[in-house]
Each structure stands twice: as C-alpha cells, then as structure tokens.
Design a protein that fits this description.
Structural class: mainly beta
Helix content: under 10%
CATH class of the largest domain: Mainly Beta
Shape: elongated
Order of helices and strands: EEEEEEEEEEEEEEEEEEEEE
Strand content: over 45%
Mean pLDDT: 89
Distance between the termini: 73 Å
Number of helices: 0
Number of domains: 3
CATH architecture of the largest domain: Sandwich
Low-confidence stretches: none
CATH topology of the largest domain: Immunoglobulin-like
Largest sheet: 5 strands, mixed
C-alpha cells in the first residue's frame, strides 16, 4: 500500500535460481513547512501529523519540518505542543510531490492566581452573578464565605474566611439562578500579624488594630490615623507597609526611593 505496482518478465530454468530486482514507485507525497511558536525565537519540539495517518514529524529550532509518506488527497494537518493552542491547516497532497504548509501556534496564557490573605478582601470577577446574592454562595479555599462586602452581576467582593485552605486553590461563586459555578484561581496566604525589623516592630491585634513600637527616626513607627482594620503588616528599617481588611495597602515612613 502506498506504492504503484510494477511488473517484470523473468525466465526460470530448471535447477537454477532466477533473480529479479524491482523498484516500486511511491504512491505517496510529502508535506514540509514551518511552525512558529508565539513569543519565542526557539520553535523546536512541535509535533506535526496528518489526521487519520500514523506518521509524524517534529520541528527543529527554526520550526522547519518535513512529513514524509503522506497518502495523496485532501487532509487536515495538525501541529501540537504543550503550552500552545493546537494549529490546523488543510493541505492537498499529490503522489511524488511536496506540499507546503506554514503555521503559527498561539501561546496559552497561564492561569495566574490572584493573591488573597485570610481575613482580607477578595474580588471575584465574572458574569451572571445576578444583581443580589439571593441563594448564591461563595467559597474560598473550600471554606464558605460569611461576609459579602458587595455583590454585582459581574463582580463579587468578599472577606476571605480565616479557615480558607492555604496555598494554590480556587474561589468559587455558586450561583443559584441560573445555576452555574464560576471559579477563579487564587493563592491564599496566612496573614502576617507580627513583623520585626532592625529598629521597629509591628503587631496586628485580634480586633485588627496595628500597634507599633521602636525607633521612629523615619516615621516608620507612627501609624497613620484613620486606618481601617488591619490584616497583615511589614516593618522595615525606614518605612512600614500594611494590608487593610478592605484590600488596600498603606505605607508610611521615609520615601527617598519612592
């Protein structure tokens, strides 16, 4: 299969062996071309194949490939590599000829998790949440949300439960009507309720108050008035930073480096 038949005449003599050598002309063609990978100058490692046929080729660093032994006819050429959207192209192959196909594979954007802190605010964006919460529920890291800060059809803002699973996980909005579940990748961090630098220390008390003591040469100890409930804090030699429960970050102290 895949080759043209060929005949030859042969004379056989009793008691002797006759030899015949034939070369069968190929009944197949080839496909060559180039597959480029979006966002890089190295285009190797792409697997190229024809749907319904067993052969395959792999691109070199320039993205070039040659796929041999393809049956004549119209086919779908497929190019695949992990991290990229599969590429497809229609190609017509003729016996003993080489068809050319060029493709560019688009990179699949990574699911970058949103950072969240236990006790802090988290915004989940999507669509179809409804104008009000109703019977819908929200979970972060497997823990049910008890405090909803705001609710809109395309955005839900909640307080991250103190029991939310730490690390890489998901935030889920389980909509009651129409029934759907929207997930968003998150990375849940434990709150930093104590921080110590060379010359100043911070602690976040149980009611969300930030208390600081130590050196105040650069104003790093003087907590700005009127701040809301605190979740995390970080003290340094010349300035301080804190995360409020509403998700905003505040900083004070020296600003010589911006």
């Amino acid at each position: 299969m895949g080759y043209h038949p060929k005949k030859a005449n042969v004379v056989v003599t009793a008691g002797q062996t006759a030899s015949v050598h034939l070369t069968l002309p190929s009944h197949r063609g080839n496909v060559s071309g180039r597959v480029l990978l979006q966002g890089t100058n190295v285009h190797s490692g792409v697997t190229v194949s024809v749907e319904g046929q067993s052969g395959q080729a792999v691109t070199d660093v320039s993205g070039d490939f040659t796929l041999q032994g393809v049956l004549p006819g119209s086919h779908t050429l497929v190019a695949r590599k992990d991290g990229y959207v599969d590429g497809q192209a229609q190609v017509t192959v003729a016996a003993n000829e080489t068809s050319t196909v060029n493709l560019t594979l688009e990179a699949i954007p990574p699911d970058v998790p949103v950072l969240a802190v236990r006790g802090g605010a988290l915004t989940v964006r999507g669509s179809g949440f409804g104008a009000a919460q109703g019977g819908s529920v929200v979970r972060v890291g497997g823990a049910s949300v008890q405090t909803v800060l705001s609710w809109a059809d395309d955005e839900v803002r909640v307080r991250v439960p103190a029991t939310a699973r730490l690390g890489f996980t998901v935030a889920e909005v389980v909509v009651a009507s129409p029934a759907q579940t929207v997930e968003m990748p998150v990375r849940v961090l434990a709150p930093a309720t104590f921080s110590l630098s060379d010359n100043v220390a911070h602690v976040v008390t149980g009611d969300g108050t930030l208390v600081a003591w130590g050196n105040d040469d650069y104003g790093q100890r003087t907590v700005p008035p009127g701040l809301g409930s605190m979740v995390s804090t970080s003290a340094s030699f010349i300035h301080s930073v804190a995360l409020q429960a509403d998700g905003t970050v505040v900083a004070w102290g020296d600003n010589w480096a911006g």
